[in-house]
Amino acid sequence: MKKSLFLLSCFLISGSGLIAQTGYQWKTAASGGYTYKYVTNDPTKSRFYTLPNGLAVVLSENTKEPSIEYRMVVRAGSNTDPRTNTGLAHYLEHLLFKGTDKFGTMDYAKEKPLLDKIEKLYEQYHSTTDPVKRKEIYAEIDKTSGEASDYSIANEYDKMMKSIGGQSTNAHTSVEETVYNEDFPANATDKFLALQAERFRNPVFRIFHTELEAVYEEKNRGLDNDAWKVYEKMDELLYPVHNYGQQTTIGTIEHLKNPSLVEIRKYYNKYYVPNNMAVVLAGDFKADEMIKKVAAAFAYMKAKPVELYHPAPEKPLTQIQLADVNGPSAESVNIAFRGYAENTKQSMLLDLISSILANGKAGLLDINLNKQQKVLSSGAYYQQMKDYGNFVMVAQPKQGQTLQEAQQLLLQQIDLLKKGDFDGSLIKAVVANNKLSLLKSFDDNSFRVEAVTNEFVLNRAVKWDKSLNNNDEMGKITKQEVVDFANQFFKDNYVVVLKHKAEDTNILKVDKPAITPVKTNTDQVSLFTKNLLSAPSKPIEAKFLDYNKDLNLGKAGIADVVAVQNKENTLFTLAYRFDMGTWNYKMAPYAAQYLAFLSTDKYTAEEISKEFYNIACNYSFNVSNDVTTITISGLQENFDKAVNLVEHIFANCKANESALAELKNSILKARENKKLDKAAILSGLTAYAQYGAANPANYGLSNEEIKNMTSKELLYILHNINNYKHTIAYYGPETLSAFTKNIEKVHALPKEFTDAAPAQKFNYTNTAANQVYFANYDMVQSEVRWVRNGGVYDPAQAAKITLFNSYFGGGMGSVVFQSIRESQALAYSTFAVFSAPDKKEKQYAMIAYVGSQADKMNQAVAGMNELLNKLPEFPENFESSKYSSMNAIETSRITKFDIISTYFADKRKGLDHDSRMEEYAALKPMTFTDIRNFHADNVANKSYNYCIVASDKKVKTEDLQKFGTLNTLTLEQIFGY
After folding, report:
1. What's CA 143's distance to the chain center, in Å?
2. Cβ of 882: how many Cβ atoms within 10 Å?
3. 3-class state of residue 949 by DSSP
4. Which residues have a Cβ under 8 Å from the Cβ of 690 and sit 6 or more positions away?
5. What are the boundaries of each domain within the chain?
6. What is the mean pLDDT of residues 155-163?
7. Eight-state DSSP code of residue 369
8. Residues near 575 by beta carbon (within 8 Å), at least 6 away in sequence
9. Looking at residue 22, what is its pLDDT?
10. What is the CATH number of domain 321-460+467-501?
11. For residue 2, pLDDT beyond 50
């Protein structure tokens, strides 16, 4: 689910900044033999077509880079799942990757009888309750599936997409939608449309029981996700009638264990019809040509009557409902109100109110709770669905604070809203910031297709004009309207979900059935695929950066300046970039945190936040391990205001002892919460494996040192930051000479820079024998990561590494994914890559990963080890990986501030030119022998560090010891506190 398009707005750019446009009206036009509709002043210039069979087609031209974003949208999700077969829409999404009678198979005539038999067996399995009989039927399903796999070609769809240059094959299912997304090079349009048309023509549900196991794994991952459990409970109570709350997208365990291929086929036939679908494309094409191609490709589709989900209306909530959710992650309180249907005035008001409460700078929660550190963190948002919306407030309690106390603080902000105790100018500031955000986003093809996709799902795009106009309409809302609505809406009609750190005794995992690995036949190619890929494509010329031409290099005082002129609009981004960070000064990241709570002699901390929000500008102070940046962005007309304010803050911020005391408590609480985060624990184990006991993950101040931090120490860093050597980077409308003159006036620089303290050095481990680093965590799954250091950075290796990763384990078409997930059904998520460092002094790392059920861990480890030690050879996969790797470079266009970021990235690697040039040239002559040799030299038959996060109740110590020498680490060892 996504946030609604109530944030959409339209505007022009002129020398004076943003000029709001009015008159978003539907118009009809004809061109290229097709009639379409469009909305005047639409920044995406989208054309809305309806083909004779009812298929909606939306086209948005954007020729800035030679690629195209695509969405196939189906207005069907878990809402339309039968109550007896929840999770069905999501199952179907997975199966739409398995091919048709023309691809994904070597001989469909021989395969089909076996698939028919499997379908009948599943119907027997579905209706059988006797455990012994069910086991017998499943054994027959497993046996027949193995026979059917003699003819199937696993992941042929993904391989085709890779072969034509696709970079982001994926899909998702939500409550009201199933969406299939791709991007592809503009020169592959004909091949792409032919593939997509075939994909939806006659999908065949092959390789089902292993894919079903992947869905089981997805369910189990959800059972380990406390946030997921909170949202499910919240929706359950908000919607006692509607399917938003009565059935989940992933489905129940009982239904997952009893699937029906017959019901899935019925669902496909019912909802996957052209008058319930949309093709959305944005990118480098001519609409008149594209519509003809799309119409021809999908002309075979026949319209059918579609009855979508029309639930009985929910009765008003009249009391407070309280629920508790237990799990190992950090505590939180969630307050949810049931909102209104899409495109209603009430929903607009709730969307506005969510920003009045929380916008990251000047909202009531931002100022009254976060800025004053009354909670560890808090926020609010409005999530729009078709029939209703969720208005949600959330907070994490600070040290020593109860969930109930945090809850009351959230509700107090609602009381302030109802009393009108907020600045009415905040409404105009919300609108201005929304417009600025959209100005940055509408240039992006993925944003364009996502916006239109969401619009189609919510209202078939017939209200696109209203959505575009929404920000202007929002700007007309008065403070009194907000107050009146808040008093009418916010009553004792909400749900409170308290997330406790406690064992969840109600979790039931989906048990694994006995599965015999199926054949993937990765080296086989269907006739359809041969014909598709044999068609010629017009080459796309790669374009590389020339830093001597694409960058404007200069000086401002003693600082180097790197600039790129923005000739498109009046937006700017300014960054001061320091080559130092936490490894130079342990206190630097805490100084950055402290700054947010500090006042100056002119402004309070709250006034500073409001001032930035009022001028629609942003600033941040970020400290990483070895780089620190101060970044400012916004409209050029507010450049001086924003930069002067930032300079004033750093020069004049003053101590706030009470804020520091609260910050210390917040830091300590955040550290405790981090120990409850399994992803952070796995990351810490990885650092331990790479560097040993002293590593970047546990380098920092101790808890005692945190408690003893002083304002004087932190303010010294803030007041003197500009005295350290830094480069000034600018992307904006001013020329280099105009910018340097301007920045010299507003940015204070010393006569000479102060040298930074030497950076902490970390020694890489040499893994001479297998080691196991284990951390105990209460979870259903086990997560295993293989780690091995791979030597110091060498730019000559770039092409080999890119191609190896693409072929071996970097995507759904890789040999790792096909073996671990497709063939053996051992995991939902798996990958294996040779990871390149971001700095010339750092080392490569071979990293592999499998997240599986705990009782599959041994099989998963064995499966990955086999691939690490023996590289499968599939010529077709290699060629598609090579084409994909080259095409990714050919179609990439680095623009705007990214030119500067890429320059800095290459510079860190010791390069003075675009590193992609050598990589591209080296890819062209590369053969599989190069990849085989790379695997043999860097991956195969090596010792590895196994980083494992799992419950010691679900994995056996003796099994862990089989992998290598067992090191059970405490959280203090991992995090250093």
Report:
1. 38
2. 23
3. strand
4. 764, 765, 787, 789, 845, 945
5. 56-310+510-534, 321-460+467-501, 547-746, 771-975
6. 92
7. I
8. 629, 630, 631, 632, 728, 729, 730, 900
9. 58
10. 3.30.830.10
11. no
Could you tell me the strand order of the sheet in which 843-853 lies?
A: 829-835, 843-853, 781-792, 945-950, 771-776, 965-968
Interacting residues of 231 by C-beta distance below 8 A, sequence separation 6+: none
d(CA 864, CA 852): 12
Query: What is the identity of the amino acid at 15?
Result: G
Q: Which of 685, 697, 674 is nearest to 947 (CA)?
A: 685
Tokens at 16, concatenated: 């004076």
Share of the chain above pLDDT 70, in %: 97
Q: Quote the tokens at residue 623.
A: 């400290």
CA distance 887 to 816: 22
Cα 502 to the chain's mean position, in Å? 28
Q: What is the pLDDT of residue 4?
A: 40
CA distance 263 to 249: 16
Model pTM score: 0.92
**Closest-CA residue to 174 (of 309, 78, 277):** 78
Task: Provide the CATH topology of domain 547-746.
Answer: Cytochrome Bc1 Complex; Chain A, domain 1 (3.30.830)
Q: Would the CA dihedral through 103, 107, 113, 114 be positive or negative?
A: negative
Residue that the structure tokens 């496909």 belong to: 268
Q: How many CA atoms lie within 13 A of 29 on its CB side?
A: 14
3-state SS assignment for residue 58: strand
* CA gap 631, 226 in Å, rounded: 34
Question: Mean of the per-residue pLDDT values for the chain?
Answer: 93
Phi-psi map region of 616: left, alpha, beta (phi>0 left; psi -120 to 50 alpha): left
Write the pLDDT tens digit of every residue in 753-773.
999 999 999 999 999 999 999
DSSP string, 404-418: HHHHHHHHHHHHHHH
Q: Mean of the pLDDT values across residues 314-320?
A: 96
Residues paired with residue 845 on neighbouring β-strands, in sequence order: 789, 835
Total residues found in the chain within this entry: 977
Tokens 């590369």, residue located: 926
Tell whether the model's pLDDT for residue 811 goes beyond 90: no
Lowest average pLDDT, out of 391-395, 506-510, 916-920, goes to 506-510
The pair of structure tokens assigned to 754 is 């102060």
Strands 829-835 and 771-776, sheet pairing: unpaired
Please state, in angstroms and rounded to a whole number, the distance separating the CA atoms of residues 686 and 682: 6
Between CA 804 and CA 790 the distance in angstroms is 14
Please return the burial class of 690, using the count of CB atoms within 10 Å of its CB with bins 0-12, 13-18 and 19+. buried
Secondary structure element (H or E) that encloses residue 356, with its range: helix 345-357
SS (H, E, C) 731-777: EECCCHHHHHHHHHHHCCCCCCCECCCCCCCCCCCCCCCCEEEEEEC
What DSSP character marks residue 511? P
CATH of domain 771-975: 3.30.830.10
* Residue of 450, 92, 193, 494 lying closest to 318 (CA atoms): 494
Encoded tokens for 840: 């010339």
Model pLDDT, residue 18: 42
Tell me, yes or no, if the two domains 56-310+510-534 and 547-746 fold the same way.
yes
Please give the residue that has the higher pLDDT: either 946 or 459: 946
- Across the strands, what pairs with 552? 563
Query: In the 8-state DSSP scheme, what is residue 165?
Result: T
User: Which of 5-9, 67-71, 152-156, 414-418 has the weakest average pLDDT?
Assistant: 5-9
Query: What is the predicted pLDDT for the residue at 460?
Result: 83
The pLDDT assigned to 9 comes to 36
Helix axes 189-201, 287-297, angle to 10 degrees: 30
pLDDT at 220 over 80: no
**Residue 162: is its pLDDT beyond 80?**
yes
CATH topology of domain 56-310+510-534: Cytochrome Bc1 Complex; Chain A, domain 1 (3.30.830)
Three-state DSSP string of 307-348: CCCCCCCCCCCCCCEEEEEEECCCCEEEEEEECCCCCCHHHH
Q: Residue 205 pLDDT > 90, yes or no?
A: yes
